[in-house]
Amino acid sequence: MGYYEVEGGYAIDGEFAVRGSKNAVLPILAATVLVDDEVVLENCPQIADFFVSLEILQELGCSVKQEERTVTINSKGLFRNEIQEDMVSKMRSSVLFLGALLGRTKKAVMGHPGGCTIGRRPIDLHLRAFEKMGVRMEEKEGIFYCHAPLLLGYHLYLDYPSVGATENILLLAVKAEGTTVIHNAAREPEITALVRFLRSCGAEIYGEGTPTIMIEGVTQLHGTVFTIPFDRIEAGTLLCAAAMTGGKLHLKNAERQYMEQTLEVLEQTGCGLRYEEEAIYLQAPTRLLSDFTIATGPYPAFPTDMQPIMMSLLTLAKGTCMISETVFEARFRHAEELCRMGANIQMHRRNAAVFGVEKLYGTKVEASDLRGGAALLLAALAAEGTSQVYGNIYIERGYEKIEDVLTFLGGRVHLHV
Ligand code: UD1
What we know:
Blueprint: E1 3-7, E2 14-17, H1 22-31, E3 38-42, H2 48-60, E4 63-67, E5 70-74, E6 82-83, H3 85-90, H4 96-105, E7 107-111, H5 124-132, E8 136-140, E9 143-147, E10 155-157, H6 163-173, E11 179-183, H7 189-200, E12 204-206, E13 212-216, E14 224-227, H8 232-244, E15 248-252, H9 260-268, E16 272-276, E17 279-283, E18 292-295, H10 307-314, E19 320-324, H11 333-340, E20 344-348, E21 351-355, E22 364-366, H12 370-382, E23 386-390, H13 392-398, H14 402-408, E24 412-416
Parallel strand pairs: 2-15, 3-14, 6-7, 10-11, 18-19, 22-23
Antiparallel strand pairs: 1-23, 1-24, 3-5, 4-5, 7-9, 8-9, 11-13, 12-13, 15-17, 16-17, 19-21, 20-21
């Protein structure tokens, strides 16, 4: 297994332009299946999950051409509606191809989605909505066989504002007959990005960014050129890295309005923050401060994806922070590894109390999911001595060459594969 070797104690300092968003590009790539024409996507992050999505598109028969961060996809030649199980098990968001394929061909076959090990992560909300819209499905030995003789718009109520379910319903409803309304829809910026993309292809969608989204089905979508917005989690990760290592960071291509909760917590820890239209400046304090609470939740609440990363930072903050993880039920696996580096964290079910310590110590730790892996890398940057952070395959799913980024910003990180 590959690992990052991190020499701790060097400040993360300098200027960096944040890349395109993982959670925005993945549903948009699935959405290209619905478009019978050429789609050009700019500012695509070069991360493992992006490449898995391109492979899926190619297997389905779509043409894919990439030049630097721009990818051109043409789904005209799509001839398959089956997603191989090995692809599905690599990446949970591949479940979005189900909605897109059904919208395009009225049929789809797919294995159960995989992804990070951060809880049960069922897809019952997706499937219930699909059934109401006319999709018939059968599950045999973990494979979903779906067909939709007639796709009809429906008034859907989500029990929980699931990001994936909202996206999947959008993909299915865009070409369904009539009007679909999603009540209690997710409001994440990545939903807004998907809607903007679909709208630029001719879809009729209203209300993105609010709990009620309305979709008027259309018969065809046309090609477009679309720029993937910045990754608010990559931005938050780098800000935390600078804050933990006593650095000073100027992030370009980062917008404050989509990361208010993360920035508010950083301000509470004593970081100096300054904002410009598309830039964020952070100056770390001499000692990070704690003594507040954080509860993750659907947007605009504190993002669950930032929880492991902020927990890593708080291990070094003076005081105590109570963290409640309300989104995923098993998202504290990084905490045990942080404790092996000297952190003092007590966990009870979905709550963790982080008692700040003066120092972390480099050691061998192992990531078991993407953001938990980033949390360990950050702890290693701030720790005394050298660490080996195992589990690069998780981190590479969502961060583009993070070892190069951190090294460029003054850290000492080498990837050994
Ligand atoms: C997306 C993001 C992920 C982020 C999460 C929450 C992508 C590719 N991934 O994941 O990074 O952490 O949103 O912001 O965009 N649930 C059900 N039944 C369902 C669907 C979800 O019970 O049918 C539950 C999940 O188990 C979880 C919660 O709802 O506890 C939130 O899941 P959801 O919002 O769907 O997250 P994802 O779309 O999987």
